[in-house]
């Protein structure tokens, strides 16, 4: 079994864990901290996601942006326990973004 040692960046009042073992996350430094979990490029697949306060998925939720792929991915993401969730569409989600923009941002003649 390979052991992964987390890479940690620290500065004044901050701690960023770049690599992680889900079962061995660093504890929050104090009760007032917010843990952000950032993921991307899941391409309609689910994976182990560490607990945290805010989940940010920064794109490529799907392979093709189809409704069924998006529904499946959103069902998985919304089932996760994070109190706040933010999602962004990117290249593989283009049909979702395009449909949304057609419905909400049509130019008025």
Spatial strand order of the main sheet: 3-4-5
Q: Structural class of the secondary elements?
A: alpha/beta
Give Rg in angstroms: 17 Å
Count of beta strands: 5
CATH homology-level superfamily of the domain at 35-109 = GpdQ, catalytic alpha/beta sandwich domain
Helical content (DSSP H or I, runs of 4+): 10-25%
Query: How many H/I helical runs?
Result: 2
Distance between the termini: 64 Å
Q: What portion of residues belong to β-strands?
A: 15-25%
Mean pLDDT across the residues is 76
Topology-level CATH name of the domain at 35-109: Purple Acid Phosphatase, chain A, domain 2
In oligomeric terms, what are we looking at?
Answer: single chain
What does this protein look like?
There is one protein chain. The chain has 109 residues and is an alpha/beta fold. It has a domain at 35-109: Purple Acid Phosphatase, chain A, domain 2. 22% of the residues lie in helices and 18% in strands. The chain has two helices and five strands; from the N terminus they run E-E-E-E-H-E-H. It has helices at 67-79, 94-104, and strands spanning 8-11, 14-17, 36-39, 54-57, 84-87. The strands form two sheets. The chain has a three-stranded parallel sheet, with no helix packed on it. A two-stranded antiparallel ribbon has the order 1-2. Strand 1 and strand 2 (14-17) form a beta hairpin. The longest helix has 13 residues, at 67-79. The protein is elongated and about 40 Å long. It starts with 7 loop residues before the first strand and ends in a 5-residue tail after the last helix. The model has no long low-confidence stretch (mean pLDDT 76).
């Amino acid at each position: 079994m390979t052991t992964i040692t987390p890479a940690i960046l620290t500065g004044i009042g901050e701690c960023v864990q770049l690599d992680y073992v889900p079962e061995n996350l660093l504890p929050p430094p104090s009760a007032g901290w917010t843990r952000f979990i950032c993921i991307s490029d899941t391409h309609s697949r689910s994976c182990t996601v560490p607990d945290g306060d805010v989940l940010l998925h920064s794109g490529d939720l799907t392979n093709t942006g189809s409704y069924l792929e998006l529904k499946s991915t959103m069902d998985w993401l919304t089932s996760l326990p994070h109190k706040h969730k933010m999602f962004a569409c990117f290249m593989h989600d283009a049909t979702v973004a395009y449909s949304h923009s057609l419905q909400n941002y049509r130019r008025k003649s």
